[in-house]
Amino acid sequence: xxxxxxxxxxxxxxxxxxxxxxxxxxxxxxxxxxxxxxxxxxxxxxxxxxxxxxxxxxxxxxxxxxxxxxxxxxxxxxxxxxxxxxxxxxxxxxxxxxxxxxxxxxxxxxxxxxxxxxxxxxxxxxxxxxxxxxxxxxxxxxxxxxxxxxxxxxxxxxxxxxxxxxxxxxxxxxxxxxxxxxxxxxxxxxxxxxxxxxxxxxxxxxxxxxxxxxxxxxxxxxxxxxxxxxxxxxxxxxxxxxxxxxxxxxxxxxxxxxxxxxxxxx
Length: 266
Known about the structure:
Helix content is 81%, strand content 0%. The protein has 266 residues and is mainly α. The chain has one domain.
């Protein structure tokens, strides 16, 4: 068993930086060389991301999965509220209905298994705030930092590496990994490189989505994408989907359709 949560994020960030650098050297993409003023503009995105990552780990430590699922939907409501406050993008009735359907479905699907503690609620609430802050500030950064999307991916991952690599030295993940000779294999390298490769495009897609649409749409997409994740995961890992999960999938699809209809009407 391994517990290299932060170290794996560092691996993926390094791969993304290498891909950006390689594509730039080949003339496929372009962005300015590393500049401290630009890095300082983008730094808050990474700091908030680190806070989101840490509170997410603490939330999973002190809460069961059903509780986390419910609060992830509450985070979406925080994002929609922030979208209105900071970007003057109010949610119409259908959008609010979509959020309500998704939140109600998450509670209905998991209420029997939810376990509530004060510490658990604290970390989940903190994670909701950091998640909302990350998405909202990412929108602000894409509007104010003069970079191409690939430049944003580059700076995002360079700064993530610079911030999180020392953390892996401090918390022992790096030393544990170096001592695990059984993990120093080509297949393990390929798996992490592939994860970084996918993460590179995921990072680009996330930045493009937030810039082109907005935080609220990004939040809804983040909820609806649990549908293909659950279905594909059941095939890849040969895992049975429980009736509660099927119910949550159906409710998420309903909420997604309602939100899509709201956007079409606009």
